[in-house]
Amino acid sequence: MPEIDTSKPHPARMYDYYLGGKNHFAADRETAEKGLAGWRSGRVAARENRAFLGRAVRFLAAEAGIRQFLDIGTGLPTTGNVHEVAQAVAPSSRVVYADNDPLVLAHARALLTSSPEGRTAYIHADLREPQSILSDPAVLAVLDFSQPVALMLVAVLHFVPDEFKPAQVIATLTGALAPGSYLVASHITGEHDPEGPATGARAYRAAGLPAQLRDSGQFARLAFSGLDLVPPGVTLVSEWRPHGDGPRPTPAEVSWYGGVGRIP
Ligand SMILES: C[S@@+](CC[C@H](N)C(=O)[O-])C[C@H]1O[C@@H](n2cnc3c(N)ncnc32)[C@H](O)[C@@H]1O
């Protein structure tokens, strides 16, 4: 079991703090509050991202017929975990979760509550080492790579700055997927509010956490080059197939892009 260092902030615990969860420590709250001081709608944005994740999984299970999911950068268990959403539609859905925060590993039991017809697994892994994810025995035991898989990189690519070669990481992962597989991704941007998200990113970097904002073009090229984008394409997460026509936060408040692409 990797050691849990509560003296340093971790993105999973900070995200849990934004979402109103209970699994965070003083260091996480302190860094999160520094970011929120500049990006006042950060909590709204996190909730919109989480809702996007739920709608995307539901779309994949209900409309695209996907039954296998590889969710990298899972976050701490919360409501609407991927297997819960997918198995509510198709109980036989199989989900592998992967995260590099030891606290997520410590809480992984809450992600292993599969329906009897399906299966879930959790691996402690780093997105920046995609080959080790693809060859992990737990991944190979649960997912059949000859059949379509939905790769989920939701709210994790902004933790992979360019020096870690995220395009190569994504190419390695998508290269292992069968035609008809999907990629779901979301990403924080400074395009609609040049101050707020940048303050957040600075707070992460000052705490030693890698962070990079990208605009819609950079995000679309990074995540979806060579893929067929599912309508409506790359949009603010709040605008991706929203439920109902109630009021939604402004683009500046959301500052978070999302999209779903199909591997031809
Ligand atoms: C903001 S949370 C997103 C959680 C969930 N995907 C969602 O969108 O609701 C980002 C997660 O990515 C994880 N993460 C960050 N960098 C990572 C890396 N290099 N490899 C694996 N996980 C990473 C963090 O530990 C955290 O749990």
Short note summarizing the structure:
By secondary structure, this protein is α/β, with parallel strands linked by helices. It has helices at about 10-20, 25-40, 40-60, 80-90, 100-105, 130-135, 135-140, 165-175, 195-205, 215-225, 250-255, and strands at about 70, 95-100, 120-125, 150-155, 180-190, 230, 235, 255-260. Strand 1 (about 70), helix 4 (about 80-90) and strand 2 form a beta-alpha-beta unit.
Shape: globular
The biggest beta sheet is recorded as:
8 strands, mixed
Low-confidence stretches: none
Gyration radius over CA: 17 Å
- Please identify the structural class as seen in this structure: alpha/beta
* Cα distance spanning the termini: 39 Å
β-strand amount: 15-25%
Hetero compounds: S-adenosylmethionine
Helical segment count: 11
SSE string, helices as H and strands as E: HHHEHEHEHHEHEHHEEHE
